[in-house]
């Protein structure tokens, strides 16, 4: 027997002890205790809490079937008690943890927080770290399957960031239970790093031991075997069976095995109802009231719902505790969800609806929180009650203010069905529609349309039309979005220039999605020199900057326009439009882009909208990809792709997210993984920029796979789909086309393409683009291209496009070797190898090693050193550290974990040859 009466759980408790010791040593883990109902998961979790003891802080919560729509209900169970002391709350909720207050304190009434708030998730994460800094922390959550979505989202966010934290997250999960959100639950529990425990059924010997303890005498073998077979060794079923046998004074002898067979099939429900039947009617009424009210039931609310006095409820609760149906603690709750289910299911569906309606009124009368009232109303049909609509709307506002849009959407949808008074119906529709549009594509377009129909004010209609058009574009209905924009422009007064310009920007954007005539693009040309004084002008100016770049404009002028527009246009305001300006800065290799992205990332976290964060991660990943930080780019691109899918972006948008991931995988040499990514999406038929990007990635992958003909086919199709792009600086298909033509023996054509692209690249002027064009042309020119390759190296010397610099150095070194200058070839090849390794470009590095061997050199195994060896992510961390920020401050600034900062600093110290922060300033001076 295990300690403290736990039977046959020694192996599980050994794992618990190991994980607790690891958490105390800052080796955070997620422990999942999984199994069928009644197998003893909660008992093992209780042992986790007990064994943490005084050496760790233990916070506990439990999911509830009726509380699954209570936004951040489990998070509030965990932390509200901790923050009851105002001084401690102020100390813990500082810096990055400040947004946690939006969840844990009374809502401020700010209904503009919006979105699946990453600011709140990040704030809660830092609250956990701040708590763990005081003392190692255990978070114990029972019944994970019934945890509300916002809390589940936080737990998923936390679980991926436990490495290096003195935190043990432990939770129980009922197997085969879909739960509140099966997809999110699967994402959380299927992580390979999860430590999983699956308590086994009790053996026949353990059943015999429990039977003897409960019935007061050892059982005869046949009786013990019957109990084991009837319950399958499930501890809860066994306890309920033994309770029924004890109540009926059944002796554990072979002659009574028939009684076991009769009772066992419905061990829980049968014994629960038998026990209730033996109690006073007031106890049964109180039990039904607790089942309806859920885990937050109090004697006062049970009294009102059951029609009993509070003294009668207290007496009834004592009887229910003695009958092992309720726990002895407050608030009133059942000992196990299956016990609650047995009571709840005995009430007919019609009676349950009536009881939930009465429960909502009771909670309203005792001035319970709007969400408690609303959760009861969600379980009732609409009744046309004005107070009910008001409670649901207020609950929606509170959910938005807490950063829990899922709950807000559920409450506001139900409020519309009640329905709300006619004078505010349009406002409720609009609020619901904007909340949905920020967090999920499901239902957003429909409610935006209804909000548009219900609104008469012209400026407000234009705002809704913009949101509707944008949502339709993102969800694959760009033509319908274009129609919405046209209709809105037609009804706007001529003097509302700003709204007209904003809608015009959306119209132009529809060309990128194959929904508008490319002639529309000409309307942006007058805005190439716009000041961007208003939002509408900034929207059209941002699009104009990208189109100007695609039209062959000079990088400096296009960047100046993009930068002006971004001073007025925040990414969080419109992720569809702002990316045009960011794209220009990416392609021009402007250093300002990383600072601007840091601001955009902070804005996206604060706004919390999934639609913005998905866009931000994908495009920031593209920026890192262009700069050669492949490892970090891949992290951002993977996260962006997942969020693009989660929000419900169309297959067209998924194409561009896939394309950039494939670009990164090809550079890393992971061709099979890149091929799998390509096959996971479907090329849509419309001539769109995303399909163009996808075909460029297809061509690059085909060339890397050795299939030049397939690469040419992809180039042909890509050019056809975006024929209006004169200078594809972000997707330089002429580079792939020239190399592919050369490989199939069409060298004259390859030279013509490469020379034409060099001319375009010089017109654009960015070093990375020009250097790449010189490298490709010099490579195809063979022995005549040595000077071109030398020029490519010189052009790229100061460029942030480090992977392109590595490729140019490699091509130059290889050309020198072929020109029988092996000694001269070694230095550029060594520099190329160092850069390729620093970029994590394994495929490029392997090719360079081959060249070094051919040049008679042995590639060194040590890593590149010095400032040049730092990745952009490492350099960002080092700069902040050199400025005096501590690891935790840096982590909060960059929205990463302290462990990530520690890893980056460790790598940077090694590359710079320093041992402490004090030496960083001098080590970084040469880069100036």
From TrEMBL:
SUPFAM superfamilies annotated for this entry?
C-terminal effector domain of the bipartite response regulators (SSF46894), P-loop containing nucleoside triphosphate hydrolases (SSF52540), TPR-like (SSF48452)
InterPro entries in the record: AAA_16 (IPR041664), P-loop_NTPase (IPR027417), Sig_transdc_resp-reg_C-effctor (IPR016032), TPR-like_helical_dom_sf (IPR011990), Tscrpt_reg_LuxR_C (IPR000792), WH-like_DNA-bd_sf (IPR036388)
Q: Which residues form a coiled coil?
A: none
Which CDD domains does the record cross-reference, listed alphabetically?
LuxR_C_like
> What PROSITE patterns does the record point to?
HTH_LUXR_1, HTH_LUXR_2
| Keyword Nucleotide-binding among UniProt keywords | yes
Which segments constitute the HTH luxR-type domain?
863-928
* Name of the protein in question: AAA family ATPase
Give the source species. Svornostia abyssi
- Specify the taxonomic lineage: Bacteria, Bacillati, Actinomycetota, Thermoleophilia, Solirubrobacterales
